Backbone:
């Protein structure tokens, strides 16, 4: 069984944590959801970001999500890929040197990486985006460009693939995002 590492944290987007976690498990992957300074059984508080016609998303209280693996026990060689949840968590997770080293590892090893919404903030801080093409929540677009990447302005329900990296603007893109990620992992999806 292939193992997947999932970065999340307090006030990560609810759907962008729970849905990939559950979808990948449904497909038979072992998913380790981790957060710095937390252990298996600890919870994080999530936030629900919704698109209700304002100039940006609204934010509501989400669910408590239970982490299932200790951050301190992560052995990067055990993982076939990395998923980075969006929401507000990436803005502070990127301040953790181990998060940065872990993200860099997946690019150095050319393993599949899936970043949704604000997840690109971790990649920008990791210095792995120069010359890449990806999407993110539009407010993160300038940060992607400043990191030397070419921001892709695509519909919110789509995903963009560039080599080992799949990205999507937000949770409405989950079907395309997860499909592209598991194809990068080597899965064959028949319709």
Residues:
């Amino acid at each position: 069984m292939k193992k997947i590492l999932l970065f999340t944290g307090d006030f990560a987007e609810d759907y962008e944590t729970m849905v990939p976690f559950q979808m990948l498990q449904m497909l038979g992957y072992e998913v380790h959801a981790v957060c710095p300074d937390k252990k298996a059984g600890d919870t994080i508080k999530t936030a629900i970001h919704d698109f209700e016609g304002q100039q940006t998303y609204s934010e509501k209280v989400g669910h408590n999500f239970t982490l299932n693996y200790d951050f301190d026990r992560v052995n990067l060689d055990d993982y076939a890929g990395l998923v980075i949840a969006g929401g507000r968590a990436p803005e502070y997770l990127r301040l953790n040197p181990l998060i940065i080293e872990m993200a860099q590892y997946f690019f150095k090893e050319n393993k599949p990486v899936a970043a949704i919404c604000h997840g690109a903030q971790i990649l920008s801080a990791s210095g792995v985006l120069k010359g890449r093409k990806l999407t993110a929540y539009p407010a993160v677009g300038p940060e992607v460009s400043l990191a030397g990447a070419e921001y892709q302005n695509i519909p919110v329900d789509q995903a963009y693939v560039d080599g080992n990296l799949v990205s999507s603007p937000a949770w409405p893109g989950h079907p395309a995002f997860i499909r592209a990620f598991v194809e990068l992992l080597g899965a064959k999806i028949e319709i």
In short: The longest strand covers residues 58-66. Residues 4 and 31 are 5 Å apart (CA to CA).
